Amino acid sequence: MATAGGDGQNQVADYLSFMLLQLGAQNVGRVAAALDDDGPVPAKSPLMAEARRLGLELVKAIAAKTEYPEQRQAQEGIRAYFCEVVNRRRERWPAEYQYFKQQGWL
């Protein structure tokens, strides 16, 4: 869920989704809302209903250890890139090299 005091909530939600993917998390979806002069999003609004639905889906996905193949594929590409970087710099980055090796990524 991303909120903004004006415009930009969709960009914030996109950024958060991107960063979570980069950090190894997978997401079940997104919802974004702009807070206007009237205050918070009303509890019975469609946005809050969508936020609740996504929250329940997230809980179920965590419990079931659900994988999202397209997100996992993107993360594997990121891991492959960093494996290459760490391997090339193993003399300068011995701790990172050992960690990647212990994880079975090298």
Structural commentary:
The chain has 106 residues and is mainly alpha-helical. The chain folds into two domains: 63 residues, no CATH class; 34 residues, no CATH class. The chain has four helices and two strands, in the order E-H-E-H-H-H. A two-stranded parallel sheet has the order 1-2. The two termini are 36 Å apart.
Give the helices and strands, then pairings.
Elements: E1 2-4, H1 9-22, E2 32-34, H2 46-64, H3 69-88, H4 94-102
The SS-based structural class is: mainly alpha
Distance between the terminal alpha carbons, to the nearest Å? 36 Å
Fraction of residues in helices?
55-70%
Please, what is the average pLDDT?
91
Q: Indicate the low-confidence ranges by residue numbers.
A: none
What's this entry about, in short?
This protein has 106 residues and is mainly alpha-helical. The protein contains four helices and two strands; from the N terminus they run βαβααα. The protein folds into two domains: 2-64, no CATH class; 69-102, no CATH class.
